[in-house]
Known about the structure:
Shape: globular
Number of domains: 1
Strand content: 25-35%
Order of helices and strands: HEHEEEHEEH
Distance between the termini: 39 Å
Largest sheet: 6 strands, antiparallel
Number of strands: 6
Structural class: alpha+beta
Helix content: 25-40%
Amino acid sequence: MEWVDEFRQRMRGFEHLHSEQEGGVPVSIKVRVTGGCFHREHSPHAYQLIDKFLHAHHLRDEGISFEEHESGPEVLAYIVLTAGVLNLSVSVINLITAIIKARSEGIKHGDHPNAPVELIVRGFNKDGKLQEEKVLTFHTHDKVDAKLIETALQNSLGAGKPEAPKRKKRAK
């Protein structure tokens, strides 16, 4: 199975969990390393910090899922459409910021490799076609700023990537 098919299944499963929410869209925000790996085996210090953050916050209650992959973590979030704009929650921004900061801190404490990470927004448009946009790149010693991350992600989502699906209202 190709990764796009696996990704589509992962997104459909995540969307199914949040099918009661109307007017939004499931989105993948990937923190992908540009070279090597970014998972527990090679980044134990970073994952200690990430685990600490995840333990302190109950993100599943907010429609947010954390997925581990060899190429780097992925955050699945259900982004709600408000006044015609897809809006990210503060929790999503804080989690992405924590992951990128943990990566930098982990490298300072011996995690390998130290390749930059890219912040990528992925999803499917109304025709079912994969849309993927690299929105930022962070090098090991770059300052990680939550406002910069929020602005870059909002700009990406504001450009209509990905699109919110049309949903039929359910009878109550």
